[in-house]
Amino acid sequence: MVGLLLSLITLSVSVVSAACTAAPGVGTVALEAAMAARLLLGRLAGVASRPEWHRQCGRALAAQPCAVPEVEDRRAGRDNGHARPRWVDALGDVRSDWTREEVGEVFASPLLELVFKAQTVHRMYHDPRMVQRCTLLNIKSGGCPEDCKYCSQSSKWSKDVDMKAEKLMDLDSVLEAAQRAKAAGSTRFCMGAAWRGPSQVGPRQWERVLKMVKEVKAMGMEVCTTLGMVTPEQARQLKEAGLTAYNHNLDTSPEYYSKITTTRKYEDRLNTLEAVREAGIGMCAGGIIGLGEGIHDRVGLLHQLASLPVHPDSVPINRLVAIKGTPMQDEKLVDSLDLVRCIATARIVMPRSMVRLAAGRLKLSLADQGMCFMAGANSIFSGDQLLTTPNNDKSEDDVMFQVLGLMEKPYNPPKDALHRDVRMHGKQHHQASTVQ
């Protein structure tokens, strides 16, 4: 019965749509009513996708003249009587020629308009209900020689934070943790070591890490590591071991970076990303908000990421968790809507990337997290512990997935060429490059 009604109403939609096209302004109300009825019955019949009839109806409605000047301005490519910015007309194009001014314009958009545009772009490339679960394991904690002021693993203030340096985990313990993560629904397993880089450790530890990568990959999971700065040769070895992605966050803008750490330079971070990219490994690169930076620094970070020759495969957006004993222990918690704004901007300027709602999620309400997903986030860290800070446990995330209607993104072996051509322009590429 529902199928018959669907067919009849679909036919009526086509007739009314044709009438609207032949005589603009006529039949709009009827068309809207037919669309609403068709959508309701479609849901009753289990129709989950957006079929051709719906796209046709949308185009027919969009063609109707509007008495509201602001709407007509938008349709004519104007914004309050002025020509619209390039990024608005090219919304959804994958490009690496973003200017800092453009990224600033995106970032400064009215929040709800920004989220709407971000969700529009998100749906061009991603299933809006699919969210990837990732698990992060600290395989070697404490004793890091770097002086990142937000990090409790730095040896510079280990006494203040009561953090002792530990040895690299053994292979079996890591594999057991990976098995538990997979059973809990994670499709990416990330391993972090508190090193300046593999060059500071002996060959036996490095070989153990390569073995970890190989064995976890054999389980049918994406494998990510964050091990500090790597050389081109080390990146090549990680690639041969089967590494999916390498995490190396830029943290903040180039201008503010020296306020965060003094033991390495911004260029060092970029060189590691280049080594990873040249080895054919996916880049996982994002940053942290709440470090005392200004708005221009958040814009600078996002511009730096979006103007890389190849966009990162995944972009973790972290909200600082201030840890007692670190130099940033007194930094105030960033408002959740500031996080939403950063995520939405990241989604617009890097359309195909996975945008990960990372550290700092524990203190977000369910509604806050829902806004982050609306803004284009489609990945989370699952499990009650990150590197050194607590995280939402699986049961809480299960409730969130159910309430928000989210689904776990299944494991799909990544394709090496997925993000190679970021200079593509034009929406004719959207369907071909959609990540499933």
Automatic annotation (TrEMBL):
Domain Radical SAM core: 129-352
PROSITE patterns per UniProt: RADICAL_SAM
Single GO biological process annotation from the record: biotin biosynthetic process
InterPro entries (alphabetical): Aldolase_TIM (IPR013785), BATS_dom (IPR010722), Biotin_synth/BioAB (IPR002684), Biotin_synthase (IPR024177), Elp3/MiaA/NifB-like_rSAM (IPR006638), rSAM (IPR007197), rSAM_sf (IPR058240)
UniProt-listed Enzyme Commission number(s): 2.8.1.6
Domain of life, source organism: Eukaryota
Signal sequence, renumbered to the chain: 1-18
Keyword Coiled coil among UniProt keywords: no
Gene Ontology CC annotations of this record: mitochondrion
GO molecular function, one term: 2 iron, 2 sulfur cluster binding
Major enzyme class: transferase
Pathway membership, UniProt: Cofactor biosynthesis; biotin biosynthesis; biotin from 7,8-diaminononanoate: step 2/2
Gene3D superfamilies per the UniProt record, alphabetical: Aldolase class I
Keyword annotations of the record: 2Fe-2S, 4Fe-4S, Biotin biosynthesis, Iron, Iron-sulfur, Metal-binding, S-adenosyl-L-methionine, Signal, Transferase
Cofactors required: [4Fe-4S] cluster; [2Fe-2S] cluster
Family matches, as NCBIfam families: bioB
Family classification: Belongs to the radical SAM superfamily. Biotin synthase family.
Designated name of the protein: biotin synthase
Originating species: Ostreobium quekettii
Native organism taxonomy: Eukaryota, Viridiplantae, Chlorophyta, core chlorophytes, Ulvophyceae
